[in-house]
Amino acid sequence: MKVDNVKSQMRKGMLEYCILLLLHREPSYASDIILKLKEVKLIVVEGTLYPLLTRLKNDELLSYEWVESTQGPPRKYYRLTAQGEDFLAELEVAWDELSDTVNHLRYKLLTTTQS
Questions:
Q1: DSSP-assigned beta bridge partners for residue 69
Q2: Which residues make Cβ contacts (< 8 Å) with residue 60, sequence separation at least 6?
């Protein structure tokens, strides 16, 4: 098994959560979402993002509205729905639990190997 494959799977697993976190702050259009994810070194391409946004919308976690742009065609701005906010809150609890577990294991491993 290659480390790159595992890293890719880990990123894919976190992508939905990260998108919801970004949209919790403010409505955004797809290009902005991609740019913000790239800024934090989570590289995503349109071919990955658009199907995910569509699925989240179909699951009623996101809605969108068309906003006129001064630089081209109207842009589709995505935002969290009330159901999306609730789902994000559940994901935050799950993330905290998972993070605590991993950190606990890492701490135990480090302290055990240093003894």
A1: 72
A2: 81, 83, 84
Q: Which of 15, 57, 55 is nearest to 37 (CA)?
A: 15
- What tens-digit pLDDT sequence spans the chain (115 residues)? 789 888 888 888 899 999 999 999 999 999 999 999 999 988 888 999 999 999 999 999 999 999 998 889 999 999 999 999 999 999 999 999 999 999 999 888 777 766 5
Helix (H, G, I), strand (E, B) or coil at 69: strand
3-state class of 114 per DSSP?
A: helix
